[in-house]
Amino acid sequence: MKTVLWLQGGACGGNTLSFLNAESPDVVEFFSMYNVKLLWHPSLSLESGEKVKELLKDIVSGKINLDIFIFEGTVVLGPNGSGRFNMFAGRPMKDWVREIANVSNYVVAVGDCASFGGIPASDPNPTESTGLQFHKKEKGGFLGKNFKTRKGLPVINISGCPAHPEWITTTLSLILNDKLTEDDLDEYQRLKIIYGTTTQFGCPRNLYFAYKVALKEFGHREGCLYFELGCRGSYTKSPCNVILWNNQSSKTRVGTPCFGCTEFDFPTFNFFSTEKNRSGIPKKLPLGVSRGAYTTLSAIARGSAPNFLVKPLYNKKDEKVDWLD
Ligand code: SF4
Ligand code: SF4
């Protein structure tokens, strides 16, 4: 049997809700498949008050062995480093986090806030929030860059706002099978098999991207959201167009730009527009493409776009139009 404890810091609870949407297996099946004993979860457990305090003390003292410590939300350090903005079980949550992390076999940061600080840690960061082992791009965060668990691993990040339920169950299943090693993690300590590709991989608008055909209004089926509507899919690491949301769709599939919610710099506050330089080329380029190559390619691509991509198949009311006439 493996033990799991889930705590929330500066969080909206979105990752818990996402995890509860897991379908195959669902959360109850998942825990029974892997013989997991959930010691406590703020939304799922009945115990409160003194009982929770006793449990946490028993974990810290070693009386109860903890295999996986899952943390959702930021570690709140304010005001003035005291952590008193986020009290839990009689003391600042940050103090529980440090002591529990030190006695856990694995520590998992679920969501962008726990991974990188997310929305609460954005400027001006009034709660002095930070991620478990990163503060935005910088390694360190609350636990420090050299932190390792009893199993010798750093914090395992499952970034996203929220993280997709399958990213959570996949990461946890590897941990529960004792199969996850440091080599499986990318530079931001996320599972490479999940975060090894960009959101663009599998996006049905890829052909429009290749020929630089822009979508100018939200929601339409044709055109790419990169050129005018701020889509970050070509430089955001996530499998959102491969592991679909609700098993059926993604933002870019329904005509909404990717906001880059799995990245350390989320949120960026220019969600719906594309910043461009004086030549009209987007400032932020797709991963791995040089500016010179992109500029040359753009001109050629735009000039050779096939008619069926440039001429709309659907009108503004999203009714099919017969453009062959
Ligand atoms: S930029 Fe966005 S909309 Fe365009 S192909 Fe990439 S992910 Fe899809
Ligand atoms: S499409 Fe982009 S913003 Fe939406 S969930 Fe995926 S990574 Fe996050």
Give your account of this protein's structure.
This protein is α/β, with parallel strands linked by helices and 325 residues long. It has 2 domains: 2-194, NADH:ubiquinone oxidoreductase-like, 20kDa subunit (Rossmann fold, 3-Layer(aba) Sandwich); 197-325, Cytochrome-c3 Hydrogenase, Chain A, domain 2. It has 10 helices and 11 strands. The strands form 4 sheets. The protein has a 5-stranded parallel β-sheet with strand order 2-1-3-7-11, with helices on both faces. The protein has a two-stranded antiparallel sheet with strand order 4-8. Helix 1 (14-20) crosses helix 6 (165-176). The longest helix has 13 residues, at 291-303. It binds iron/sulfur cluster (SF4) (2 copies). Residues 199-200, 203, 205-206, 209, 224-226, 231, 233-234, 252, 258 line the site of one iron/sulfur cluster. Belongs to the [NiFe]/[NiFeSe] hydrogenase small subunit family.
Order of helices and strands: EHHEHEEEEHEHEEEEHHHHH
Treating each run of at least 4 consecutive H or I residues as one helix, how many helices?
10
At CATH level 2, the architecture of the largest domain is: 3-Layer(aba) Sandwich
CATH top-level class of the largest domain: Alpha Beta
Quick structural overview:
This protein is α/β, with parallel strands linked by helices. It contains ten helices and eleven strands. The longest helix is centred in the C-terminal third of the chain and has 13 residues, at 291-303.
